[in-house]
Design goal:
- It is a single chain.
- By secondary structure, the protein is of the alpha+beta class.
- It has a domain of about 200 residues: 60s Ribosomal Protein L30, Chain: A (2-Layer Sandwich), CATH 3.30.1330.60.
- It has 13 helices and 32 strands.
- The protein has a 25-stranded mixed sheet that branches. Strands 30-27-32 form a three-stranded mixed sheet. Strands 26-31 form a two-stranded antiparallel sheet.
- Strand 8 and strand 9 form a beta hairpin.
- The longest helix has 22 residues.
- The radius of gyration is 45 Å and the shape is elongated.
- The protein starts with a strand and ends with a strand.
Length: about 700
């Protein structure tokens, strides 16, 4: 038997042989059935037309197929007939599916298809065990086993197994949105499948895609590939419109990313621009279905590789990353929670890259915190970037980069910490737009005695601004750094010698009221003297410095202590100090204020318990008041010190004494120092720091000024 579509010569349904065995009919019981129904060699061709309609469907020909079938309410009447079939056998069937609704028509053939259904019945709620085995002509097997029900609604419970299915089967659909060719790849899936009219489809299980290789269309070089991508467990619920995956493990993945001369990537031209569908005038507008919410517990990467190339630079650049491994955890398409990143890999022969942090994958501007670290990367390989930036090649050197970026609400705040070791500049290259800076001087100021350069480049901006470019921001920050460096070299000088603190070398600290150099400041003098010796064109400006309030208070206390020490001589006891200070207090502040001050440091001890007091003699019942003599003497000293005379001339002398102390110490460390390279400047005022010290700020200038 064959069935043709109207006007078609080739049948879409062929039934070479159909056998019914053990049939029976009973009246008035109204039952009919058979033991077996066998269908051998069935051939069925299904097609999706360019307008998306499925066919051929002879039961709904022409435009009538678009009309909704009205629901007919059956009037109550005699009991309906019931039917049973012991077993349905579909053997060696062939099913062909053609899809013409995509740009490149797709064709899928299943053969042979073997289906067995047992215990088929028209009874409501009855379920029928079944087994299904099918093979794709392109390779791969599909097997299912379970039970199905038809009345009062379709229901299904089955175990599904797909093995060795070629991923290239999806090639025509991939071409609709990307210009890539699937060169290899095999899909395997195991799962439990259920369907009901109330809950829809539900599938759970595991799967794997092995040996995937995707290349640019018409090319042979892989674009994306992996040895295996395994899904540990997945759970899809149509009723919740949700797909949950516990873990995806990707073994030996590979990615090739190339930047063209026009600064587009190889992925830009791979994507196919798709026009929005034009709705039919006769068809009602439909609301597109929402994509399912997808969540992944984590993605584990092992043994990954990547190739990166940039042809947009004056000199071509390429980098090879190997041994990439790590994980991305807590992925979701809801864009409300952050995913964790932890990846590391090898760059070149001995370099390392590490990525850590968190971000919202589908909305990175919401909440992103990422650290990207490069260690021991060969700097000459980055010459294309230095040429574009500053017009110089890099002949030698290694690079460490620590990038930390935070994005919140589209606002980017980041730091770029760079360590360059053993750098040597190469040839100049004339590049339009490159910085015109004395890089040799900048490097000489930055490089320490171990051949290292440490640079911090903070960046910020709004990533939602269409004009924002992180590369331009970083280049601007580097340009500012180098520009400022040649005129303010103290940070570079601190890197010249071990132990020098870049944050403190530009000032010498003094204790209030003192002009002598403490041991930590003497160490700074050593480093400054070494810097002056190593940089013969460097000069220092040394101003006097004073913090009026703090210095005056200290000078007053020192003057009072000196006065008291001279007056008491060998009788510098606590009692002697009290008597001396009481006399001076009465003289300067008035004797009438002394009793109240003394009383504030006098304490009356608590007496003994009442029962004990009654039995004790009267003199022992109450103790005499006690004076807190150390506290009283300290209070006298504080009050009287404020009356010690210290004038502005004394403060000016202190300021100049501090400048002279620095000059003298430098000359002692560097006897051959030319006096023209040290300039004593007028005194300035300063604030006391958190360490309660007064900083004398040094000024670095050119010796020729």
């Amino acid at each position: 038997m064959s069935v043709h579509e109207a006007g078609a010569r080739t049948p879409f349904l062929t039934l070479p042989e159909l056998r019914l065995a053990g049939g029976h009919l009973s009246w008035p019981e109204k039952t009919a059935g058979a033991d077996t129904l066998t269908v051998d060699g069935l051939s069925l061709t299904m097609r999706r037309a360019e307008d998306g309609r499925l066919g051929p469907m002879p039961w709904s020909p022409g435009d009538a197929g678009q009309a909704a079938t009205p629901h007919v309410a059956l009037a109550a009447g005699p009991a309906p007939w019931s039917a049973v079939l012991g077993k349905l056998l579909l053997r060696k069937a062939k099913i062909q599916v053609e899809d013409h609704a995509i740009h490149e028509p797709a064709r899928l053939e299943l053969t042979p298809v073997d289906l067995t259904v047992e215990g088929v019945s028209s009874q409501a709620g009855a379920s029928f065990p079944f087994t299904l085995a099918a093979a794709l002509s392109a390779g791969g097997q599909i097997k299912a086993e379970g039970k199905v029900s038809a009345l009062p609604a379709l229901g299904l419970e089955a175990k599904l197994a797909v093995s060795d299915l070629p991923v290239a089967t999806a090639q025509p659909y991939v071409h609709d949105w990307a210009r890539v060719d699937i060169r290899d790849g095999r899909l395997a899936v195991e799962g439990d499948l259920t369907y009901s009219a109330s809950d829809g489809l539900a599938v759970s299980g595991k799967g794997e895609v092995r040996a995937l290789a995707v290349a640019e269309q018409g090319g042979d070089t892989p674009l994306v590939s992996w040895e295996s991508l395994g899904v540990d467990h997945y759970d899809y619920r149509q009723s919740a419109n949700e797909l949950r995956i516990s873990q995806i493990t990707v073994a030996a993945p590979y990615l090739r990313l190339q930047v063209a001369a026009n600064q587009t990537t190889n992925f830009n031209h791979l994507m196919v621009a798709r026009a929005a569908p034009v709705p039919s005038a006769s068809a009602p507008a439909s609301v597109p279905a929402s994509p399912p919410v997808v969540s992944v517990g984590r993605v584990v990467v092992a043994g990954g590789k990547a190739d990166y190339g940039d042809a947009s630079l004056p000199l071509p650049f390429s980098a090879h990353i190997t041994n990439l491994q790590g994980e991305v955890a807590a992925l979701t398409t809801t864009a409300t929670s952050s995913s964790r990143l932890a990846l590391r890999g090898q760059v070149g022969d001995f370099g390392q890259v590490t990525v850590q942090g968190r971000l919202v994958p589908f909305d990175p501007g919401r909440n992103t915190h990422v650290n990207l670290l490069f260690r021991n990367v060969e700097f000459p390989e980055l010459s294309p970037y230095t040429v574009k930036f500053a017009g110089r090649r890099i002949a030698q050197g290694r690079l460490d980069v620590d990038l930390h970026y935070e994005v919140d609400g589209g606002r980017l705040d980041g730091t770029n910490r760079v360590v360059i070791r053993d750098i040597k500049l190469g040839d100049r290259v004339d590049v339009p737009g490159a910085l015109d800076l004395p890089l040799d001087l900048a490097i000489a100021l930055l490089k320490d005695d171990e051949g290292k350069i440490n640079v911090d480049l903070p960046v910020s901006g709004n990533i939602n601004d269409p004009h924002f470019d992180i590369g331009s921001v970083i280049r601007a920050a580097a340009a500012d750094l180098l520009t400022n460096l040649v005129t303010a070299p103290f940070r570079a000088l601190a890197a010249l010698f071990d132990g020098a603190d870049a944050d403190t070398l530009d000032h010498i600290d003094f204790a209030p009221g003192r002009a002598d150099l403490a041991p930590p400041e003497q160490e700074k003098i050593v480093h400054l003297a070494q810097a002056l010796g190593a940089r013969p064109h460097l000069a220092l400006g040394i101003p006097g410095v004073v913090a009026p309030d703090a210095d005056k208070a200290r000078l007053q206390r020192d003057a009072l202590d000196a006065r008291m020490a001279q007056a008491l001589g060998d009788h510098y006891t606590l009692e002697g100090q009290r008597q001396f200070l009481e006399a001076l207090f009465s003289e300067r502040l008035g004797a009438d204020q002394l009793p109240a001050l003394r009383q504030s440091f006098t304490r009356t001890p608590e007496g003994p318990p009442a029962s004990t007091a009654k039995t004790l003699p009267a003199p022992a019942a109450v103790s005499a008041p006690a004076l807190d003599e150390p506290g009283y003497v300290a209070a006298l000293r504080r009050r009287i010190a404020k009356t010690e005379p210290v004038d502005d001339q004394a403060l000016a002398a202190l300021a100049q004494a501090r400048a002279a102390a620095v000059v003298t110490a430098l000359k002692q460390r560097l006897p051959a120092l030319d006096e023209k390279r040290i300039a004593v400047r007028p005194a300035v005022t300063a604030q006391v720091g958190e360490d309660r010290l007064i900083p004398l700020k040094l000024d670095a200038t050119s010796a020729g000024e």
